[in-house]
Design goal:
This protein is of the alpha/beta class. It has a seven-stranded mixed β-sheet with strand order 3-2-1-4-5-7-6, with helices on both faces. Helix 1 crosses helix 2 and helix 7 crosses helix 9. The longest helix has 22 residues.
Length: 275
């Protein structure tokens, strides 16, 4: 994450996917995203015809599944504060603050260049206020003004906090992922209720079509997409070792059914709690 540009193409691509499917404000759609989407469309159609599904279906499945878990955390578990790390052009902060109003505080966190671009877009949308803001954060930092812990320290520890990551973990090494999880668990442990929600890749769902899909995804982001764990149990064990009290792995299509697209079935979502 730190000093890397490899995630930037996905930020533009996902921003366009969410906008074209009615999940995002037009200000979060970029020309770069449209060009990337159209350039990959023939490849995705071909991959879908041989049973591999499309990147668009995969992205929508994971996004809607994370939404479903966050909605449940807010409605049922008294989570009233959210930090979305590496938020990119995600429309989640805009949609959730529109829905819940002053009932939640939503912080979008990213590296400086993307944070500035997102802040300007949200300003044009009229979405920023004391309950919805953008901050600069490097999730690989243990301390300092751009660390996650520094942002979390400004929130109300007597209330619940959720940390969200989407499309981040696969681009980091295993050591970086485990380090991020330790930082997240540490930050969340200081709150009355702590929840972490993210997509996660599992090796056990790999078949010929999924492996081909991963190759396409790696080419798309101009770097390797890491597979850190084979089984759900390994993810749960690693999260508990990092400091979470419990964790669960969900199939995205069970949280947000979207039909039978093969790409949707490869999406898994982790949910971990500190208390």
């Amino acid at each position: 994450m730190s000093g890397s540009d490899s995630i930037s193409p996905t930020a533009h691509y996902t921003g366009y996917v969410w906008a074209r499917n009615g999940l995002a404000h037009p200000e979060l759609e970029t020309v770069e995203g449209r060009i990337l989407f159209e350039s990959l469309r023939p490849v995705m159609i071909a991959n879908s015809l041989v049973g591999g599904g499309t990147l668009e279906a995969y992205l929508l499945a994971r996004h809607r599944a994370i939404d479903a878990l966050l909605e449940r955390a807010i409605d049922q578990d008294q989570i009233t504060q959210v930090i979305e790390v590496a938020a990119g052009l995600s429309p989640r902060g805009w949609r959730f603050t529109k829905r819940f109003g002053p009932g939640i505080t939503y912080i979008e966190a990213d590296l400086s260049a993307m944070a500035e671009r997102k802040r300007k877009a949200l300003e044009r949308m009229g979405s920023l206020d004391e309950c919805h803001r953008v901050v600069e954060v490097d999730a690989l930092l243990d301390e300092g003004p751009q660390s996650l812990l520094s942002v979390a320290d400004e929130l109300d520890a007597a209330k619940g906090l959720a940390i969200i990551t989407e499309g981040l973990l696969g681009y980091l090494s295993r050591d970086d992922v485990l380090g991020i999880w330790r930082r997240f668990a540490h930050a969340l442990s200081g709150f009355a209720r702590g929840r972490y929600i993210s997509d996660i890749h599992l090796g056990s769902v790999q078949n010929a079509q999924v492996r081909a899909f991963r190759v396409l995804l790696s080419m798309f982001v101009r770097g390797r997409v890491h597979m850190h764990f084979d089984e759900a149990g390994q993810v749960v064990e690693a999260l508990c070792d990092a400091g979470f009290a419990d964790a669960h792995i969900h199939k995205a299509i069970e949280l947000a059914p979207d039909g039978q697209n093969p790409a949707s079935r490869m999406s898994h979502i982790l949910e971990a709690s500190t208390k």
